[in-house]
Specification:
- It is a single chain.
- This protein is 14% helix and 39% strand.
- With 299 residues, the protein is mainly beta.
- It has two domains: 1-159, SH3 type barrels; 210-299, RlpA-like domain (Barwin-like endoglucanases, Beta Barrel).
- A hairpin with a 2-residue loop joins strand 10 and strand 11 (133-138).
- The protein is globular and about 65 Å long.
- It starts with 27 loop residues before the first strand and ends with a strand.
- InterPro entries: 3D_dom, 3D_YorM, Cell_Wall_Dynamics_Protein, RlpA-like_sf, SH3-like_bac-type, SH3-like_dom_sf.
- Residues 164-217 are annotated as: Disordered.
- Residues 32-94 form the SH3b domain.
- This is SH3 domain-containing protein.
Length: 299
């Protein structure tokens, strides 16, 4: 599964619910720890004490980023506001390795020394987040840094499952509409030209068909993955998207390649107007690099 850089940052925000702790000047600043709310609901308070006023509440499963710790309380960011939650009601975010082999490094850079490697499907616990890197611990209790691109977090997995269910339902509804339209058109004569007979929409389209909504996107390329976020096998014609911008199953015409692509994958770094194009080799990906291109959303 494509676990990219920009979908993959489910961050950690916890909340104050029980038991106190008075705010003092003796507290520690922590760098980007991520945790998940485990209580059904968790109160976020204005300060690190149950006596402080409640400013919000979080639902179970919310991922939060911890900014500061103080006497059993964690300071988090919620939307544009900051607040405090009790530390007893959150735990570290968990995830699974999606690459066939993932290097674990001493620091958050590919220049850092390799200290271990993890196989696909290995369970990890995310301790910190820095740029596009996760500090993790795995089953052997070793601690190191891995690229977030190749970790599917527990929160993301649940979101993908939900989105896939919605996409499946939408596809089923569309198929029913197509069958209905086919029934209506059974008695109509359909004419085709040799040019139309030789054209497959899944492969290429002509300028007569590219009437969709235009967007400028920042495009990158990837290869070598065995399964997409929607459960298909990636191929030339697959793109990874931010499903909140381009829903799964959307046909996307890319004039640069004069081809229709299908949005059926995602990635942690694919946020907003970004796409990742599946290519057949790493050499093709390196040649393509990263560039701004025009696309057309066909629906």
């Amino acid at each position: 599964m494509r676990i990219n850089k920009n979908i993959k940052k489910s961050l950690i925000l916890t909340i104050g619910l029980v038991a106190g702790g008075l705010y003092t000047s003796t507290h520690n600043i922590y760098a980007a720890e991520r945790e998940v709310v485990r209580a059904e609901t968790l109160n976020v308070r204005k300060g690190p004490s149950i006596e402080e006023s409640k400013i919000e509440s979080l639902n179970k499963g919310t991922v939060v980023e911890i900014l500061e710790k103080n006497n059993g309380w964690n300071k988090i960011k919620v939307a544009e506001n900051e607040g405090w939650i009790h530390a007893d009601y959150t735990s570290n975010e968990k995830g699974k390795v999606t690459a066939n082999k993932l290097n674990v490094r001493k620091g958050e850079s590919i220049e850092e020394e390799k200290i271990d490697s993890l196989s696909k499907g290995t369970d990890v616990e995310i301790l910190e987040v820095k740029d596009n890197w996760f500090k993790i611990t795995s089953e052997d209790k070793k601690i190191g840094w891995v690229s977030e691109e190749y970790i599917l977090t527990e929160t993301q997995a649940k979101q993908l499952e939900k989105e896939a269910s919605v996409a499946k339902k939408a596809t089923s509804q569309n198929n029913n509409k197509v069958e209905s339209n086919n029934d209506e058109n059974n008695n109509k004569e359909v004419q085709s030209t040799p040019q139309n007979n030789n054209t497959k929409e899944d492969e290429t389209i002509t300028s007569n068909n590219n009437n969709g909504r235009s967007m400028t996107v920042n495009a990158s390329a990837y290869s070598g993955h065995t399964i997409t976020a929607t459960g298909t096998t990636p191929k030339w014609g697959t793109i990874a998207v931010d499903p909140s911008v381009i829903p799964y199953g959307t046909k996307v015409y890319i004039p640069k390649f004069d081809r229709v692509f299908i949005a059926e994958d995602c990635g942690g770094a694919i946020k907003g107007n970004k796409i990742d194009i599946f290519m057949n080799s790493e050499a093709e990906c390196n040649s393509f690099g990263r560039q701004n291109i025009e696309i057309q959303i066909l629906g």
